[in-house]
Amino acid sequence: MSGIIDTRDKIIGNNREIKRLRGENKILRDELVASCSHSSVVKSGCRFETLALNFQPEKVICSVCGLEEKADDKKTDALWDESSVVKIVSWDELFKYRELRPLKAVLVPEDK
Ligand SMILES: [Zn+2]
Predict the structure, then answer these.
(1) Domain range summary for the chain, segments of one domain joined by +
(2) Ligand 1 center to residue 65 CA distance, Å?
(3) Distance from the alpha carbon of residue 64 to the mean position of ligand 1, in angstroms
(4) Other beta carbons within 10 Å of 25
(5) At a CB cut-off of 8 Å and minimum separation 6, what does 79 contact?
(6) CA of 112 to the centre of ligand 1 (A)
């Protein structure tokens, strides 16, 4: 029985650690976004989802800090500066840039 309780306690401890790390990452993410110049932006065109009859406007994601915005909710001018756009991708590919990866992987795409 103690094995089960130990395992359960370990899971509880791990969950606390995950929560703590998520909070720490949120703070780090905010610092990263605040200090980033957003000079390496990936952009998708707009798309119309025929089955859902849903229009999706253009979207951009900074490949360095991960900040993203839709064209109908622009807040950060630097994200929409055309000189910052380094790549235009499909909507599906755009979501790959949500996860921060080592900067080398961002600047030297895997498909090249
Ligand atoms: Zn950025």
Answers:
(1) 1-35, 38-112
(2) 4
(3) 5
(4) 12
(5) 38, 41, 60, 62, 67, 69
(6) 23
Dist. CA 40 → ligand 1 center (Å): 7
Tokens of 111: 């498909």
Q: Using one digit for the tens of pLDDT, what is the confidence trace for 31-80?
A: 999 999 999 999 998 888 788 888 889 999 999 999 999 999 999 999 99
Percentage, residues of the chain above pLDDT 70: 93
Whether the pLDDT of residue 18 is over 90: the answer is yes
Opening angle at CA 93, ends 33 and 81, nearest 5: 45
Ligand 1 centroid to Cα of residue 47, in Å, is 24
